[in-house]
Amino acid sequence: MNHDPPGPRGLTVHRLTDGQVESVLTDVFTRGRRCRLLDTGTGDVPGSPGRPQWLLAELGDGRVTGACPGARWRRSDQPPTGEAPPPGPAGDRWRILEVLVFGPHAQVRVGEGAGAGWISADAPGPLPEWLRPRERSFLLQGWNGPEYSRTLDGEVPLAVTREPSGTRAVLPVEWADFSGRPRPGPDGVTALESSGTWLTVREYWAEDPGTGAVGVAFHRLTGMRTGTKPTGPEFDVGTGDEISGRGLRW
Prior knowledge:
With 250 residues, the protein is mainly beta. 7% of the residues lie in helices and 40% in strands.
């Protein structure tokens, strides 16, 4: 008996044409300008011009990251960092494992070898509370201290980080070391308020029609930021128990 897994709720995904895939790669890597597809939208995905954009590109021989808060990209393959070179024109697309170009409202994903691409965003319409997308934030790699992690000079933030193991990353965001402080909450609970450098993600849920089981079926990157952890959950300083559902912010 065949069983198709349930699709994510509250999400719209539109497959790109070959020409649209090529235009995304040309904008971001060849011309170094804003991804026009995120600005204009396509299919059921509306555009949102002027919003910040970020890049995470996994290549067979390295990684390229970048940020574009305005008209032009600052990427990790450019001086002074000079990470793995970006994929060139058509004959060099084989190096691509995955390219993600994203902003707060939508994400473009180009698959292996640039053979296919998709754009995803929120779908309109109401959802039951247990199926509404959930905001998450994840601490980015980097050890505390100026000898390990720092922000490079320039109008567009770019940070170089290292772990004690020697693992190095170039991140398209202004760097802040991780820290935490106690913050009083309701019912005598004390939360750990964390600060640092974060990747933000929106998770979409699916519900099995036969069993009613609910699980995360899709996630979309929404941004990078520095400062207080932008989403829950939070934890009790004394016990380590999650307290996001007990009156503190999510």
